[in-house]
Amino acid sequence: MSAVTAAKRFRTKAPSNSAEWRALKDHYKKMEVVHLRELFAEDPKRGERFSLQAVGLFLDYSKNRITDETLNLLFKLAEASRVRERIEAMFTGQKINVTEKRAVLHIALRAPRGEQIFVDGTDVVPEVHAVLDKMAAFANRIRSGDWKGHTGKRIKNVVNVGIGGSDLGPVMAYEALKFYSERSMQFRFVSNVDGTDFAEAVHDLDPTETLFIISSKTFTTLETMTNAHTAREWLLHGLGGDESSVAKHFVAVSTNSAEVSKFGIDTANMFEFWDWVGGRYSMDSAIGLSTMLAIGPDNFREMLDGFHEMDVHFRTASFEKNLPVLMAVLSIWYNDFFGAQTVAVLPYEQYLKRFPAYLQQLTMESNGKSVTLNGKPVKHDTGPIYWGEPGTNGQHSFYQLIHQGTRLIPCDFIGFGKSLNPLGRHHDLLMANICAQTEALAFGKTAEQVKGEGTPDWLVPHRIFEGNRPSNTIMAEKLTPRVLGKLVALYEHSVFVQGAIWNINSFDQWGVELGKVLAQRIIPELESKDEPALHHDSSTNNVIREYRKLKAN
Ligand code: G6Q
């Protein structure tokens, strides 16, 4: 199906004009004043009823400001938005990224061998596995020491050079799965065009033992190409200028073989992916080469299997029992009806320290849109702001605002039954904090309770916790590559469902594309020897002049 047909097919009237949306608005008026304390008091089994086990993940969603009626209305909205049909359109390779006329097939990256998924008449699954096999063979050669650097030394350091989708997934996955990584090797990630990023990443590395992975879908991104050229100079400087050394120390991950060759990397050392993989959905494509080098091919495949398990669950489970759908409609409930502007993601797992940053791109780049598929301005709020930090650190800083501030901030708490580093009582103490925080957020502390603790009257208002702050608790047995795959896919699909309900294209990123061209015009104005004629607004002109003065001093 062409992009145009796909767009037409999903053109529905503005979601906020639908009967289902209006029903939710009316329902919200009732729910706005209901406290979680009442909802729990009315139904002693609420905790069990509003929780779900699927594909090895547990979700407690009982501490949300919902009733059965709320969920029914939200599922009706999802049905009216043709979520089921849209899921099928994605899984069957239709060009649902209508503005770029592309299929959206990150799910093909983790499809098992033998499954068939067609794009323009070609089954893409064999290509996916061919690249995975090539990555595995390469990873085995590097990890075993069979692949030698230019001077015959084994590779001990791997530096991924990429930005955005070509960086955040690899960094997050490396940190998340460090426990499983090859500890005799070092992994570094360079993304920022700020030279400090590169300088610090390599300052203690020996070029004879270092491999650069230049990860860029387009192979034209300013930051990545600037860092890649600097890396080349650094290597050549360290290896006495011998150009032939590049082949042993540089590989590329890209969709653009012409640019890869132009840079001087042999396309035999290029790992390919496809235009139907969006940058922020690419961590399980060849963009994950650094992850595979760190954790090994078997663990990488385990991670892909985890993604796939969630894909199957998402495609087949009823809405009531569907983890991504549930998470999505809850997010819509707060974003569009309660007016919540943000969602906090709070992993109680140190290894997931970059997970919130990763989710920021996944969610905000996907659903930070203000026109519908038909190009009409949306009449409802779209993508909320995602943010967060690992627990318990956040508790000692911003949780104050979540507990007692004026804003409603729905939270996703993520925890595990077992620690990968069991040390004394640490893990029970960590997990006690998840339970305590979600309980306090939901139930708060009334004036009576505060007074009952002997608090003087003047201090009582300061020590009241209103409660009624919603949260989800997501748990799994322990953080493994497979579980990480499931968690990421959970959020990917939740983002998809939200985008479908808002009737927006979650798969383009014109705002990011704008950033890629804007600076180009100004670079010569900063670099020119002679004072340039400036034609910006007076503020931009002035800042440019000031910068030129400061750098000349
Ligand atoms: C992701 C975005 C964006 C992209 C980077 C890097 O969905 O498109 O973050 O990943 O701009 O792009 P390249 O991989 O082409 O260098």
What report would you give on this structure?
This protein has 553 residues and is an alpha/beta fold. The protein contains 23 helices and 13 strands. The strands form three sheets. Strands 1-2-13-12-10-11 form a six-stranded mixed beta sheet, with helices on both faces. A five-stranded parallel beta sheet has the order 6-5-7-8-9, sandwiched between helices. Strand 5, helix 8 and strand 6 form a beta-alpha-beta unit. Helix 8 (168-176) packs antiparallel against helix 16 and helix 14 packs parallel to helix 21. It binds glucose-6-phosphate. Glucose-6-phosphate is lined by residues 163-166, 216-218, 221, 224, 278-280, 365, 509, 512.
What is the strand and helix layout of this fold?
Blueprint: H1 3-9, H2 19-31, H3 36-42, H4 46-49, E1 51-54, E2 57-60, H5 68-80, H6 83-91, E3 118-119, E4 122-123, H7 125-144, E5 157-161, H8 168-176, E6 186-190, H9 195-202, E7 210-215, H10 222-238, H11 246-249, E8 250-254, H12 257-263, E9 270-272, H13 289-295, H14 297-316, H15 323-338, E10 342-347, H16 355-367, E11 385-387, H17 399-404, E12 411-416, H18 426-443, H19 447-452, H20 460-463, E13 471-476, H21 481-502, H22 510-527, H23 538-552
Parallel strand pairs: 5-6, 5-7, 7-8, 8-9, 10-11, 10-12, 12-13
Antiparallel strand pairs: 1-2, 2-13, 3-4
Helix pairs in contact: 2-5, 5-15, 7-13, 8-13, 8-16, 13-14, 14-21, 15-21, 16-21
The chain binds glucose-6-phosphate.
